[in-house]
Amino acid sequence: MGLRQTGFNSFATINPRHAKEPLTRTVELFVSAGFCDLELASITHTLNTANDILARSTFTWRFVSDTPGFVSGACDMMVRAEPAIEDHGFSDVMIVVGGVKAGQTPWLRRARAMQRKALPVVLLSDAATGYIRSTKSPAGKLTTHWRDLATLAETGYHPNLTARFSENSDGIITGAGSGATSELVIGLIAPLLESVQVAELGNRLLLHTIRKSDAEQPKNIADNEALFDANVTEAIRRMEDAISDPIPMADLAADLGLSTRHLERVFRKVFDDTPAKFYKRIRTKRARIMIEETLLPMVEVAVATGFGSCDTLAKAIKDEYGMTPSKMRARTKISLLSYEPG
Q1: Residue 289 Cα to chain centre, angstroms
Q2: What is the mean pLDDT of the chain?
Q3: What is the pLDDT of residue 102?
Q4: Is the N end or the C end of the chain the one with fewer CB atoms within 10 Å?
């Protein structure tokens, strides 16, 4: 995962089998109401499986929150969290779990305090997005879940933003989270494991491969190449690369060396839909993300997603989601916070 060179003393390379004293590392899991259940379960399951492989409780974890007590996740998982005191009781590493409120950065001051002590902080998905929005001049590269990358690019200047699975910026690790969480945790604890133990950990978690932190996220439908016919995959890739300036279907078919009729036939076979309607749904989904997660004027959303006018955008949104763009934005509380680094 490329984290051996981070230089954090808390996860220095020590073989637990050869340590004079039992080696333990504590992971602090920061959760807010509506946290991502998948990310939290991925962290604890990976650490617990590593303990099983090592035959000792090398890794322990505790839950902290800005709203201590019982905290419920987006899918109703519930944990009992301790209060997160800004400058007290640090663990060896803090992982901020993504979720609906993670981007509001109540954890930012604690993260800065840990950063000053050279203790690693990991921000997953929504938490990484919140950090990117609140950080003016990061020292290094930053990333987050691909769903937020286009939104961030549209709403601000982020020259250090990448689409990799994780990045390290002066001790703050931002990551895609979601299904890639286990791999990030494996990368973080790998210095404390032998190579064969890392391999066994991946096998126990049924990971066919452990992707490195500098690998690119599969951010488009076409990145799942094994799911579709080669022509369908290439057609989708070209659609996703031309959201703001849609390609006419005749031109797309010609570029692929197919007839328009054949292109329609393969799309109907796979998606039970025409390529034109499928393309429109991709653009409508991108528009929905911009409507719900940014304050961009509707006309800018329309242009960015190839609809050209607010009326055309409104009809597409209404047809797909059953509501107007204005109602879709009104139901979502948008928070574009701007905290000064603490």
Answers
A1: 14
A2: 86
A3: 85
A4: C
**How is residue 303 written in tokens?**
């242009």
Integer Cα distance of 133 and 130 in angstroms? 5
Distance CA 124, CA 181 (A): 8
Q: Write the secondary structure of the chain as one string of H (helix), E (strand) and C (coil).
A: CCCHHHCCHHHCCCCCCCCCCCCCEEEEEECCCCECHHHHHHHHHHHHHHHHHHCCCCEEEEEEECCCEEEEECCCCEEEEEECCCCCCCCCEEEECCECCHHHCCCHHHHHHHHHCCCCEEEECHHHHHHHHHCCCCCCCECCCHHHHHHHHHHCCCCCECCECEEEECCEEEECCHHHHHHHHHHHHHHHCCHHHHHHHHHHCCCCCCCCCCCECCCCHHHCHHHCCHHHHHHHHHHHCCCCCCCCHHHHHHHCCCCHHHHHHHHHHHHCCCHHHHHHHHHHHHHHHHHHHCCCCHHHHHHHCCCCCHHHHHHHHHHHHCCCHHHHHHCCCCCCCCCCCC
pLDDT tens sequence across 9-55 = 445 433 444 444 557 899 999 999 999 999 999 999 999 999 999 99
Global pTM reads 0.72
